[in-house]
Design a protein that fits this description.
Pfam families: Oxidored_q2. The chain crosses the membrane at residues 6-23, 30-50, 70-93. It is a multi-pass membrane protein. Belongs to the CPA3 antiporters (TC 2.A.63) subunit C family. It is a single chain. Helix 2 runs antiparallel to helix 3 (70-101). The longest helix has 32 residues, at 70-101. By secondary structure, this protein is mainly alpha-helical. Helix content is 64%, strand content 0%. It contains six helices and no strands. It is elongated. The protein has a single domain, classed as Helix Hairpins (Orthogonal Bundle), CATH 1.10.287.3510.
């Protein structure tokens, strides 16, 4: 089984462009990046599936000495369905985000930024004052001397 160089380079290029687009702060570009990565995976599956052959139908002879592998085709069809499902989900997220914020860009979460700048002592003190604040396992038990549930 030999892989051809051109389709492998195309799959690598599609994957690189898709990852670059996924790293953007725009949901539409993230969606396009997911679609590019899905297409690169499909191209890779077809490329590494082996040489072509006659259709894998019973009593089919078209001059080829071997039959084509139907597993790769079934995997690509499954990957297409999964990619379309993920694409529809991200498209729904994009629509909801645009409906709520009237923009397609993802902004920084101010609360997450504030919490990331706190020290461990400040996090534990905030957890003791407000029990609804989640902390890492074991930290709250050592501070309040309550039995774990």
């Amino acid at each position: 089984m030999t892989a051809h160089l051109i389709p492998l380079l195309m799959a690598a290029g599609l994957t690189a462009c898709g990852v670059y687009m996924l790293l953007e702060r725009n949901l539409t570009r993230s969606l396009l990046g997911l679609m590019m990565i899905g297409n690169a995976i499909n191209l890779l599956i077809i490329d590494v599936s082996g040489p072509g052959g006659s259709p894998p139908i019973y009593n089919s002879t078209e001059g080829m000495e071997t039959d084509a592998d139907p597993l790769a085709q079934a995997m690509v069809l499954t990957a297409i369905v999964i990619t379309m499902g993920v694409g529809a989900f991200v498209l729904a997220l994009t629509y909801r985000s645009h409906h709520l914020t009237t923009t397609d860009d993802i902004s920084d979460d101010t609360e997450a930024t504030r919490v990331s700048k706190l020290s461990d002592e400040e996090i534990i003190a905030a957890a003791v004052q407000d029990p609804g604040v989640p902390v890492e396992a074991g930290e709250l038990d050592a501070v309040t001397s309550e039995e774990p549930v």
